[in-house]
Design brief:
binds zinc ion, mainly beta, globular, three-stranded antiparallel sheet, four-stranded mixed sheet
């Protein structure tokens, strides 16, 4: 899915600084500000709880909530590693 110009928001609906390009989404971990890469494709990073996008630094896990018609994407936190 091409999410290049989508509005990227956190789970509360606040816009965040992120970099969507093609089906890839780079953003900073909400816990430690480490780099996280998610991919808006089935069974890729961030697709569901079995395929979360995981922070390389602290292990926090995220899911993408994609709203294609609204061109919006919500980032949901699954858990913190701590
Ligand atoms: Zn982190």
């Amino acid at each position: 899915m091409d999410i290049t110009d989508f509005l990227i928001m956190d789970w509360e609906g606040d816009q965040i600084l992120a970099d969507p390009q093609g089906s890839n989404l780079a953003f900073c971990c909400f816990t430690c500000r480490g780099p996280v890469l998610a991919v808006a494709l089935e069974n890729q990073r961030g697709w569901d709880e079995e395929h979360p996008a995981v922070c390389r630094r602290c292990g926090a896990a995220y899911l993408l909530g994609i709203r294609p018609h609204a061109e919006k994407l919500y980032i949901h936190k699954v858990y913190d590693f701590e």
